């Protein structure tokens, strides 16, 4: 059991369409589900986890329907985004309870193994209520791993984690993927997905915007026209020098703003060109700010690309 | 249809929350009142009957039922931790039945048992009053647990609805509109108490056969419906 198939899936709430005719196949390895907040990532993950019925289309795990089929949980481990667990339990009690619910032969041993995998033995006998965000996340991971699932679904697992916890979880997920498990995690942060996932599915406004290797998607993202707002000691001279180079496509002198609006078509070339030209001409740069770097604009570019 | 792990999590969750204090406070109050009544007026069958009928069965039993019934599942659905039960190869109706059994056990312990103790304090079970109201409290606990568990599944305001039912419907409307008493768990339970206690001490507006049918029917229907709703329980994302 390793392949999740989402086939022409839509989900609407009243007259709001959260997921719009999405088709994707998630196989072994680490897949990142990338998209801005509100794009429908959680809705998709909830449908993959069997907690939400698709309004149209089907979600299947190796051919078995996920909705209303509790047997699929023998193969799926879920790490929910929400914080609440059984906070009055210790991590060990919590993970043991999860093992029992899975009907495992030796719940104690399975729980010990899962807690060791996430390196939580040091705090396993403290109530979950006393845990930091990162420790909670690891306890949740242990509960999801206790039955050795072949599919792991994680909803925004890095939210609120500090950098060290983030690295630790990434390392763990990478290992899970390398072991041949199907690992799917959602994120709205490109860098997170890029560092971890070999395969990316991009969702924007409920639609499946892009799919594939992260390098391909990264190139799509960096090759789009970049816009900058630049203020300098001599805007006209700077404009003249910049437009002579092939990395810029258009430069506008904005008199009201007393600034240059520059459209660059070669991201790498332009970032190298601007400081070099300024230095050579003795022009001082006061402001260099990307004017369309918001994630939403990156994503909306992807949708039209 | 019973899962010991679900039962353990449910009962620890029930008794571990702050509202569990009400579970201890109400029976304590009943026993306090009983002791005071016994000391001040001595043993009296009709006073014993009004304390047990007026406070124990009319107020304490439904309130304990609200806390045990909604508390057995509502908080988990609210905070999303129910996902750890749902994402398991455990049949959803099994989860409901297990939670119902825990809610019933907690209700009986915190309402029927104190009723029996209070009854013995009040008049030493003269005329079978203590046993009659204990039996009524026990059967009412079962039905209340089932009704309020269902409320906990279908609405996030389960406690509010439960209190409205327990206090306004059972107490107020029931005393003003005679017909409403036919649809009152309290009256159904009283029908049983009437059968057990001495003549004329307990009266119910519902005959015993109809009461039994309604108690059993409502309990089963509420449980079946809750199990059905659990199968398609939707956990919406927080987006």
UniProtKB/TrEMBL annotation, chain A:
Keywords: ATP-binding, Nucleotide-binding, Transport. One of its GO terms (molecular function) is ATP binding. The keyword ATP-binding applies. InterPro entries: AAA+_ATPase, ABC_transporter-like_ATP-bd, ABC_transporter-like_CS, P-loop_NTPase. Coiled coil: none annotated. It holds the Pfam family ABC_tran. Residues 4-230 form the ABC transporter domain. The keyword ATP-binding applies. Signal peptide: none annotated. CDD domains: ABC_DR_subfamily_A. It comes from the Bacteria. Belongs to the ABC transporter superfamily. This is ABC-2 type transport system ATP-binding protein.
Automatic annotation (TrEMBL), chain B:
The chain crosses the membrane at residues 21-41, 47-74, 95-122, 128-151, 158-177, 206-226. GO terms for cellular component: plasma membrane. Keywords: Membrane, Transmembrane, Transmembrane helix. The keyword tRNA processing does not apply. GO terms for molecular function: ABC-type transporter activity. The keyword Transmembrane applies. It comes from the Bacteria. Signal peptide: none annotated. This is ABC-2 type transport system permease protein. It comes from Actinacidiphila glaucinigra. The lineage of its organism: Bacteria, Bacillati, Actinomycetota, Actinomycetes, Kitasatosporales.
